[in-house]
UniProtKB/TrEMBL annotation:
<protein>
    <recommendedName>
        <fullName>AMP-dependent synthetase/ligase domain-containing protein</fullName>
    </recommendedName>
</protein>
<comment type="similarity">
    <text>Belongs to the ATP-dependent AMP-binding enzyme family.</text>
</comment>
<dbReference type="Pfam" id="PF00501">
    <property type="entry name" value="AMP-binding"/>
</dbReference>
<feature type="domain" description="AMP-dependent synthetase/ligase">
    <location>
        <begin position="44"/>
        <end position="156"/>
    </location>
</feature>
<keyword id="KW-0436">Ligase</keyword>
<keyword id="KW-0576">Peroxisome</keyword>
<dbReference type="GO" id="GO:0005777">
    <property type="term" value="C:peroxisome"/>
</dbReference>
<dbReference type="GO" id="GO:0016405">
    <property type="term" value="F:CoA-ligase activity"/>
</dbReference>
<dbReference type="InterPro" id="IPR000873">
    <property type="entry name" value="AMP-dep_synth/lig_dom"/>
</dbReference>
<dbReference type="InterPro" id="IPR042099">
    <property type="entry name" value="ANL_N_sf"/>
</dbReference>
Length: 162
């Protein structure tokens, strides 16, 4: 609708310089980011419920992580990233099947100041090259099964450092 200039012009004329106030109660807008709140929430859960199970792998119910394990592994991953030159604003592309490593990678990347770009796990070179060129990651997180194909794809994508 906003691209329909005639409609927008008519709508503006109908306002007659009136102030329109919502009848709804104002919603408080938090000052911190969603990522900052998520990291804070993980820290709180890790301190209050360290041994509670946070995630269970869907395909293998034997694999699970507690809040404390996610917290500790995420900070460890963040430290690894920064030790490899990962900087604020860098991207991590995650090409994993559904697994318990997802929250670790996400929280760790956020703690290091980066963002996470999802990719589907592929097994063909051209699919990885396409995904890496689109996401311009600094780091790619994959499974061992995809290692050879991704290494070849990374050689065609200069943004990847790790």
């Amino acid at each position: 609708i906003s691209q329909n200039t005639e409609f927008m012009e008519n709508w503006r004329k109908s306002l007659n310089d009136e102030v329109i106030k919502s009848p709804c109660t104002p919603v408080p807008i938090p000052e911190d980011t969603v990522i900052a709140r998520a990291l804070k929430s993980l820290k709180v859960h890790a301190s209050k419920h360290p041994n509670n199970t946070a995630v269970i792998e869907a395909l293998n119910h034997e694999r699970s992580l507690t809040y404390q394990q996610i917290h500790d592994r995420a900070l460890s991953f963040a430290t690894f990233l920064t030790s490899r030159g990962f900087a604020m604003g860098d991207r991590v592309t995650v090409a994993l099947p559904n697994s318990i490593e997802f929250p670790v990678v996400h929280f760790g990347t956020w703690a290091a100041g980066g963002s996470v770009v999802g990719a589907r796990e592929a097994f063909k070179l051209h699919e990885y090259v396409h995904q890496l060129r689109d996401s311009c990651p600094t780091v790619v997180v994959i499974t061992e099964q995809s290692l050879d194909v991704v290494i070849e794809a990374v050689q065609q994508c200069p943004s990847v450092k790790v």
